[in-house]
Amino acid sequence: MLAPWNDLLALARQGEVARLGDALAGRAAQLRAHKPQPEAQKPYGRRVLHQSDQGEVMLAGWPCGAGAAPHDHGSATGLVFVIEGHFAETCYAFDGGNLRVLGVHRYAPGGYLRATPGAIHDMHAQSEGMTLHFYVPAIHDMRVFDPALRATFVVTGDAGAWSPRAGERVSARVAWDGACAP
Ligand SMILES: [Fe+2]
């Protein structure tokens, strides 16, 4: 069995990534039983497995080729473990008018990425896959960047990393420099 989620969140908070990885090793089948499928019009499925004052644990299920929009995790630190599949992560800088690519990283099962507060990235599934996300603390607000609309959306932590769909809550929408008013 997996250790209690708060114990794993404590490891995430302390930066004990190797121990956290060890705790997750061999648990793919156990996690697969909870793998979420994407809802209509959404790129990947997300299922919150745990939320407390220690943080949040979310399991994401990805079809092959699916991608998140560029986003940050607000003031939370994110630690994402690849449980199944292969993924590419692109990291960005945002200057108010454009997203600039800082680098691309690739991950295989057992790999992990860390996103510091305010860091902007996206993930694309290069195969069908499953990722387990630890957020410390739980995400309150986060930014999602839409290069096509040239707009940044502030959404709540229960939103996915995609440009908000009709009916989804948006706390704020900010046009990028030089963009037409929304
Ligand atoms: Fe992320």
Report a brief summary of the structure.
The protein is mainly β.
Mind telling me the C-alpha Rg?
16 Å
Uncertain ranges? none
- Average pLDDT reading: 94
Helical element count?
Answer: 3
Q: Within the CATH hierarchy, at the fold level, what is the topology?
A: Jelly Rolls
CATH hierarchy, class: Mainly Beta
Shape: globular
Strand content: 35-45%
What is the succession of H and E elements?
Answer: HHHEEEEEEEEEEE
CATH H-level superfamily title: Jelly Rolls
What does this structure look like?
The protein has three helices and eleven strands. By secondary structure, it is mainly β. It has one domain: Sandwich (Jelly Rolls). The strands form three sheets. A five-stranded antiparallel sheet has the order 1-2-8-3-6. It is globular and about 50 Å long. The chain starts with a helix and ends in a 7-residue tail after the last strand. Bound molecules: fe (ii) ion. Fe (ii) ion is lined by residues 71, 73, 78, 115, 121, 161. Fe (ii) ion (FE2) binds at residues 71, 73, 78, 115, 121, 161.
List keywords for this structure.
182 residues; mainly beta; Jelly Rolls; 5-stranded antiparallel sheet; 3 helices; 11 strands; 41% strand; globular
